[in-house]
């Protein structure tokens, strides 16, 4: 049973006036102690959010539901014991997903099965989320004592000068065996800052805090924010990525639209020198090229992050170049088996 801790909710409207110092403190506390928080009055219009939600739910019904149901019946045919292509229930995610890439180049026009209205709404929504992610990164800079723009610059690779920005659109349909299958298995996110527009009626997202699972409460028109592995490295562990999961629900179809604002593939990631204390220098987080991190992440998403960081210390980077030849989609985390089957 999740304990009654109070999940941080930050009203961004308070950043404009005399309440700014208190709101900034709350943000710092959320970043240091939770790695997760929810924002209200974030500036994205509620009409646009409603439109994106309606179009996403229509799209699932029209295009994806039948495919999901076919997969689901195969997945559970042996009581979840390994029916679907020999995949065990513990290696499944009960989600139907598709990805949209925005930066460095959008692939919205190429995605099949989206109508023009949905494409237009997603393009507008992505533009608003990109601006919000950059605004949040600057607020984090302020709290970390870094100059404005430091984190955004750290995310830009040297050649293309662009971060990677992409959206994972998911439905978590009702699951007859939530005791057997997860909605999405526990993991940390690989990248930078993640903005989630989640269903306000069907719950399921939980984060791991002090050894206990805590519900992320569905709140209408809010955006849930969480920090990824790269911000943990850049801040030398001052802020941490946090393990989270989606619990499959017996009733209701949960919508989630997660947008990942990540470094460019060729960005070199390393701790901010000013955040590495002299006495901690030997144990500092490593330096690596983001694309190399992603090559490792796609093979280890559902495993602990620490061995990934360790692998890049000392000569680990060299070995990884040879061992992992997995192509990633522009820094997007790969999802579980259901994604592979249905994408
Ligand atoms: O759907 C959600 O609420 C979380 C999604 C997520 O954690 C992921 O796709 O990495």
From TrEMBL:
Pathway: Alkene biosynthesis; ethylene biosynthesis via S-adenosyl-L-methionine; ethylene from S-adenosyl-L-methionine: step 2/2. Pfam families: 2OG-FeII_Oxy, DIOX_N. GO terms for biological process: ethylene biosynthetic process; fruit ripening. It catalyses: 1-aminocyclopropane-1-carboxylate + L-ascorbate + O2 = ethene + L-dehydroascorbate + hydrogen cyanide + CO2 + 2 H2O. GO terms for molecular function: 1-aminocyclopropane-1-carboxylate oxidase activity; L-ascorbic acid binding; metal ion binding. Residues 162-263 form the Fe2OG dioxygenase domain. Its EC number is 1.14.17.4. It comes from the Eukaryota. InterPro entries: DIOX_N, IPNS-like_FE2OG_OXY, IPNS-like_sf, Oxoglu/Fe-dep_dioxygenase_dom, Plant_2OG-oxidoreductases. Its cofactor is Fe cation. Keywords: Ethylene biosynthesis, Fruit ripening, Iron, Metal-binding, Oxidoreductase, Vitamin C. Belongs to the iron/ascorbate-dependent oxidoreductase family. This is 1-aminocyclopropane-1-carboxylate oxidase. It comes from Panicum virgatum (Blackwell switchgrass).
């Amino acid at each position: 049973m999740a304990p009654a801790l109070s999940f941080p909710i930050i009203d961004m409207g308070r950043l404009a006036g005399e309440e700014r110092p208190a709101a900034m403190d709350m943000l710092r506390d959320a970043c240091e102690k939770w790695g997760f928080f929810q924002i209200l009055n974030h500036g994205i219009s509620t009409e646009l959010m409603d439109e994106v939600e309606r179009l996403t739910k229509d799209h699932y019904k029209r295009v994806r539901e039948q495919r999901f149901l076919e997969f689901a019946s195969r997945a559970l045919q042996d009581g979840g014991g390994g029916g679907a292509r020999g995949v065990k229930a513990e290696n499944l995610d009960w989600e139907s997903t598709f990805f949209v890439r925005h930066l460095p180049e959008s692939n919205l026009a190429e995605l099949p099965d989206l109508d023009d209205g949905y494409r237009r709404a997603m393009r507008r929504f992505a533009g608003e989320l990109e601006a919000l992610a950059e605004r949040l990164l600057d607020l984090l800079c302020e709290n970390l004592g870094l100059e404005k723009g430091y984190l955004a610059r750290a995310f830009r690779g040297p050649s293309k000068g662009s971060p990677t920005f992409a959206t994972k659109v998911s439905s978590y349909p009702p699951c007859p065996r939530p005791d057997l299958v997860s909605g999405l298995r526990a993991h940390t996110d690989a990248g930078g800052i993640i903005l989630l527009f989640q269903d306000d009626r069907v719950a399921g997202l939980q984060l791991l805090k002090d050894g206990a699972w805590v519900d992320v409460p569905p709140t209408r028109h809010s955006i849930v924010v969480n920090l990824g592995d790269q911000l943990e490295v850049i801040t030398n562990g001052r802020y941490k990525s946090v393990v989270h999961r989606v619990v499959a629900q017996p009733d209701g179809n949960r919508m989630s639209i997660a947008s990942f604002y990540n470094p460019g593939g060729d960005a070199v990631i390393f701790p901010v020198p000013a955040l590495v204390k002299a006495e901690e220098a030997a144990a500092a987080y490593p330096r690596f090229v983001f694309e190399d991190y992603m090559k490792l992440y796609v093979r280890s998403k559902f495993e602990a992050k620490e061995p990934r960081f360790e692998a890049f210390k000392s000569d680990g980077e060299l070995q990884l170049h040879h061992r992992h030849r997995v192509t990633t989609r522009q820094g997007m985390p790969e999802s579980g088996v259901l994604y592979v089957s249905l994408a």
